[in-house]
Design brief:
alpha/beta, D-Maltodextrin-Binding Protein, domain 2, seven-stranded mixed sheet, 16 helices, 46% helix, globular
Length: 381
């Protein structure tokens, strides 16, 4: 009991600023280890100990810069917990790294929506968030949460954070707005632009656009051979398939390519830099949402604290303006800035009914076969 009162006095001193967070946690941790505490009167103090750092992995470039400036650095200043950020170029590459890692080595990741969420759950990599520790989740668009909850029995392993579209980006010096409206997704099959076409080296995006180019519903493809033929035609016209947002921006800015699929926020960044790049979402174009996913084995309370901080209205708006993607915040519940309202893909209703998303069950069900065939087609078969 004396030890319990001593810890309570130490906690009181910490709350009043007489003991720094780092000193407080160090004393708690050292004493817990010395006493072998796993239960009894010290258990709640042992659970209070938090890590010195958490790891966050994302897409790099302007997106990571926005997270660092507007979320991670302020969070560290507020809590004393450092955020170590890594980057990845593709979802498959990152998932392979996670699966090969030790539990707790990777913590939070900026993943692409429902498809990846479902994959991680199928591989037993989901955690379970304590939503009481994330009160700002109440301001997130319900439709973005619901698709995740259906996968994990009403619980969440991630919070929705932003959304956008993968539309068509084009150099207005060489391709007019009228031509884009006329040709839509089929412009990526146009012989006139051979050697000046780009594309994302992601099998899902290639198949989606192949479906559009053959007049099919990407979530209900009836003639997959026609899609592979369209992908082969595109492959023979492409200068390069890009693998990251930074590479996408470089290819367009240096005028190595004139037209490509592109991520709405990256194209907005190019426009803000003064490049005359147009952007359009073709009929049936691809919408997506991104989430901040917490991987199984992570320090949950520290991760939940970071998630709640990132969902603070001011923080989420600052990150959105920095990375040029609308936040997942519900515009009917929070006031968003004029800059956010002007971003590509922004939906003022908060329903996102105008966007087309991957059907997770459909695409996961075809992943093994389609990804295998695509790897052959990409190599020239």
């Amino acid at each position: 009991m004396d030890n319990t009162r001593r810890y309570e006095r130490l906690l009181d001193r910490h709350r009043h600023g007489d003991v720094s967070r780092r000193t407080f946690l160090g004393l708690i941790g050292a004493s817990a280890a010395a006493y072998g505490v796993v239960g009894g009167p010290f258990a709640k103090f042992a659970r209070a100990a938090t890590p010195d750092e958490v790891r966050f992995d994302g897409w790099g470039g302007v997106v990571s810069e926005a997270f660092r400036e507007y979320a991670f650095d302020p969070y560290t200043e507020k809590t004393g917990i450092a955020v170590v950020d890594g980057t990845f170029g593709g979802a498959d590459e990152y998932l392979a790294r996670v699966r090969a890692s030790q539990p707790g080595e990777f913590n939070l990741a900026h993943l692409s929506g429902v498809f990846d969420y479902s994959r991680y759950h199928g591989l037993d990599l989901t955690s379970e968030l304590n939503e009481d520790n994330i009160p700002n989740l109440a301001n997130v668009i319900p439709a973005l949460q619901d698709v995740f909850r259906k996968i994990t029995d009403g619980k969440l392993s991630a919070v929705p954070y932003d959304y956008g579209t993968t539309g068509l980006a084009y150099n207005r010096k060489h391709i007019s707005d009228d031509e884009m409206k006329e040709k839509g997704a089929k412009i990526l099959l146009d012989e006139a632009y051979k050697g000046k076409i780009g594309g994302w080296s992601d099998w899902k995006t290639r198949v989606w656009y192949g479906a559009l180019q053959t007049g099919q519903d990407p979530n209900n493809i009836e003639d997959i051979e026609a899609v592979w033929d369209a992908i082969r035609t595109n492959r023979d016209l492409v200068l390069k398939y890009w693998g990251s947002g930074a590479e996408l921006m470089s290819l367009l800015a240096e005028e190595e390519i004139y037209v490509t699929e592109g991520w709405s926020g990256r194209i907005k960044a190019l426009q803000d830099q003064g490049h005359d790049i147009g952007y359009m979402d073709p009929p049936g174009g691809l919408g997506w949402q991104e989430c901040i996913f917490v991987i199984k084995g992570s320090p949950m309370e520290a991760c939940e604290e970071l998630l709640n901080f990132m969902l603070e209205t001011e923080v989420a708006i600052a990150v959105a303006e920095g990375q040029n993607y609308p936040p997942a915040l519900d515009p009917s519940k929070v006031e968003l800035s004029d800059k956010v309202k002007a971003l590509p893909a922004f939906d003022p209703t908060g329903t996102l009914e105008g966007l087309n998303f991957f059907n997770a069950d459909y695409w996961n069900g075809n992943e093994e076969e389609w990804s295998r065939v695509y790897s052959r087609v990409e190599r020239g078969y």
